[in-house]
User: Fold these one by one.
Assistant:
Number 1:
Amino acid sequence: MQEIFEERTVEGFPLLALKGKIMGGPRTRKLCERIQEIVAAGAKHVILDFSNVRWINSTGIGELLNSVNRIRKQGGEVYFTALQERLAEYFELIKLNTVFKLYENQEQVLKALARG
């Protein structure tokens, strides 16, 4: 099974670089489980880089939303960055831009995190 993300750290913050399509199922569940593991290990913030995501369906959105809500209940946050234009328009159309923290690039996320 091809991985749906690659993990690295950027300025001390965990970053998951997503790739392909996020369509729910075992690959997306593995991503959501990894997000929860990162938070359980003590991280308050997780950055999701969407620069290599071609599409996300409603199932994928639902699973990510559940992860984000669980993290927020624990005082943390998930930051979405680098959405391709098509995805950004889709998120805006279905009002996810009011639910998720969306940023154009990693630098903007890091500035927001630095401000607290």
Number 2:
Amino acid sequence: MTKIQNAETYIDEGPKGWTGGKNDITRQDKGQIDPRLIAHIPGANNEQELFARRSTGRMTREEWEAFKLDLTKNGMEWPITIFKEKDGTVHVWEGNHRLVAALEMGWALAPIEVRYFGNSQRMGLVV
């Protein structure tokens, strides 16, 4: 059973015998997920270190509170985007601040998009 709710999956593994290159998206899952299930995934540029040093990441406390208020009122316009690279590396590509905010606000579900490159889905799914 998948942990992504309301999931839509797009698969393009190419013709038989073809191996996707490192920049070829070969599977894409979209839906909603409990953000606690992806909280352990590191940011692509070590954003988790930003949050370890400062609970608001790159934002001031005032910007952070305004950001969370906007999410509360309007929801997430863009999903938290996770990449699984051909070598198996998994990271949050976009949405590190949104993920931390969703966790802090206790959201049960947040929008997610998982992109698999170079048939990396064959090594197992992220969620």
Number 3:
Amino acid sequence: MNLLKKGYYLLLVLLLSITVSCEDNEDGIDTIKGLDFNIATLNSKGNKVGVLPVSAYGNGSIVYTVDFGAVAEDDTDEFRTSGPLVTYDYPEETATYTITVTGSLDGVSDVSITKEHTVTYSVVVAPPVGGGNPLLGVWKFAPEAGAFGVGPEKENVSWFSSGIADVTDRACIFDDEYVFNADGTFQNVVGTETFVEKWQGVAADACGTPVFPHDGTATATYTYDETAGTIKIEGKGAYLGLPKVVNLAELTAPADAPDEITYIAVLNGDVLDIDIEVGGGGFWSYKLVREPAPSIVGTWKFAPEAGAFGVGPEKENVSWFSSGIADVTDRACIFDDEYVFNADGTFQNVVGTETFVEKWQGVAADACGTPVFPHDGTATATYTYDETAGTIKIEGKGAYLGLPKVVNLAELSAPADAPDEITYIAVLNGDVLDIDIEVGGGGFWSYKLVRE
């Protein structure tokens, strides 16, 4: 079977061996019932997809053919499996594919079902460590007097400057974000409200709904020339500071927005001083400050409250089962477990001499007890936090967040089945980390972790 297609199709089978029965149908099955499959996106780029076929029988006799629908008819991107998760790396582009799963069993007719899956490809580039582009990150106006103003020369705002009261009165512009991404793209993130002015067609200068093309929808890039001390923003409607200020002019209508603007820039660590000449001997000046990057570095535990972990039909829904307030005491051995994200990219499960173990791990009953390998904290593991994609990937057999049995599209039935990596959906809000993970069959486990 050709597993490498046209130089870029790669099918990775998370399977050590597959045993397929070719003998007569001994189960007396006359038709394949309940054929279905679950689909999950397994990387931050969006192009690595996992498929887990299931049926009403699940006894290993049925053979599933998974067609990922990504290549021409004279080629193949199919794989036959008796049930384990299979994954496929689609081309690095946004596209919709039809995935087909066919169930086959000796002596009965094949059954096929299809589902459409859209790959939304996203290039995620981590900021360089110890060098590279020093402009990367999210910037805002400095929350202080003189954050923006105009005067007869650079860094001179004697004609007009914002005051300390404007930090509150014009909060809708002080929370606007100017985002320099590692891939060279630039974004204005203005939200549902920013400061708009009469030249944009509104009745009065005030906080209000952003006006196109200065509403954050521009597709834009930037070029930072540190030697020349300039930042060039390319993209109609993209800007730094105030949208009306362009090279040698101030706009009188939104439609007059230019395709590019070049700013004079002086970067000093997390402070960016911007100047731009508007003609007539005038210069606008802005002081921007870099926002601290969200970090998951630290030690985390289950929140000591009801609903700290549970399962339900969708993300953040624990209607099928959730931990109660009594579990904080009754299962204290899991509420004191630590999930440690180190600054060097390593990850640790610190479970101590006792944690909550379950029968699938080979113990007699679900209860506090001695940790079971490989979920005993001995795993050598790393983590990757992708804020843009909203994911945390834990790599290392036996390393996990929340509950050890819960992995992508499945729940473990034996410790030896622990995968080499698990990817979680993650939302970080200060010292609270909300985690979700799809386990197949339409179910999601959810965890609430708090930073120590």
